[in-house]
Amino acid sequence: MARAQEFSRGGFSIGPELGVPSQSVYGIGYGASAKLEIPVINKFALSLTGGYSEFHFKSGIVNNFGGQAPSTFVPLKAGVVYGAGAGLSLEFEMGDAIETSSGFTGSNRNLLAYSFGPAFLVRISDKQAVDIGVRYERWAKNTLTQTGIRVAYRLGW
Q: Which of 8, 18, 51, 62 is the most buried (most CB within 10 A)?
């Protein structure tokens, strides 16, 4: 039986992500990420997140400019997680989104990235859980604003 897991220890999680951009040249994005949470005091933990994301252009841009290859990014962020109780946590992260290939600009960039949002842990066993999170995320001014959805397997200790 799945139960909410209290935020009482650190953990490592890995899983797929879906990015839904808003007011962007991109139509959809997907990828995967890994996250490490290190408890600090009481209900607070530090988080380190790394991932890979691929964003596809909207069909109008592809039709006007020919076959556009998707843009790929490697987001690397660090932040703070607050365990609000009953499996609910709130997180703020900031870091760098490294553009590894761009089908639109033709250049690679380092973009300031920040994100925040809630997550919910659904306990599988004493040390395992499913981490379901939703976040608002922005990469540099006017580059990408998205709603990110992450479902990950989490191993706690």
A: 51
